Amino acid sequence: MRIRTGTLLAPLAVLVLSACSGGATPSTSPADTATASGNYRMAEVATHNTREDCWAAVDSGVYDLTSWIDRHPGGSDKIIALCGTDATDAFNNQHSGDTKPAEQLMSFRIGTLVD
Ligand code: HEM
Questions:
Q1: What pLDDT is stored for residue 108 in this prediction?
Q2: What is the C-alpha separation between 39 and 111, in angstroms, rounded?
Q3: From CA 29, how far away is CA 3, in angstroms rounded?
Q4: pLDDT by position in tens, the chain (length 115)
Q5: Virtual CA dihedral for 41, 106, 53, 67, nearest 10 degrees?
Q6: Are the CB atoms for 58 and 94 separated by under 8 Å?
Q7: Cα 4 from chain centroid?
Q8: Could you please report the per-residue DSSP string of 7-47?
Q9: Cα of 63 from ligand 1 centre, angstroms
Q10: Protein residues with CB under 6 Å of any ligand 1 atom
């Protein structure tokens, strides 16, 4: 009976322990690298001002819009005009309150705008 209990409990303890540590590790490192974590000044955003390398700031976020230029339903020219700029007004004037553009924008986030 004592042997049976030990045989059952030991693997269970290993399972619980590995589940705990396993849960903590992936939730920090990959999420941190996947999520935007850089801090950028407007001066840096302004250097990414071409069709091939297009960043823009919207409110306190910095976004890499390069891949969106040729996919924007409203036309590539609208996005090209934003490259290297603070696009807060342009974005909000056109898309304020619209779920789809806001969600799309979030997917391009690379960091936070700092002073
Ligand atoms: C980073 C900035 C922007 C993002 C992420 C974005 C995203 C989007 C998305 C997702 C749609 C499709 C909406 C839907 O299907 O319901 C859309 C449509 C549109 N966008 Fe933008 N947009 C941006 C900036 C702009 C700007 C600055 C303008 C105008 C100056 C603009 C003008 C339009 C127009 C006119 C449409 C409608 C196209 C149509 O229905 O044929 N967008 N945008």
A1: 98
A2: 6
A3: 40
A4: 455 555 555 444 444 444 444 433 343 334 344 445 799 999 999 999 999 999 999 999 999 999 999 999 999 999 999 999 999 999 999 999 999 999 999 999 999 999 8
A5: 180
A6: no
A7: 50
A8: HHHHHHHHHHHHHHHHHHHHHHHHHHHHS--EEEEHHHHTT
A9: 15
A10: 65, 72-74, 78, 82, 87, 90-91, 94-95, 100-101, 104-105
Which of 48, 65, 70, 72 for mutating ligand 1's site (highest number of atoms within 8 Å of CB)? 72
Mutational pocket test of ligand 1: of 63, 65, 67, 95, the residue with most ligand atoms within 8 Å of the beta carbon = 95
β-partners of residue 49 are 54
Instruction: Note whether 62 and 113 are within 8 A (CB).
Output: yes
What element of type H or E holds 113?
strand 109-114
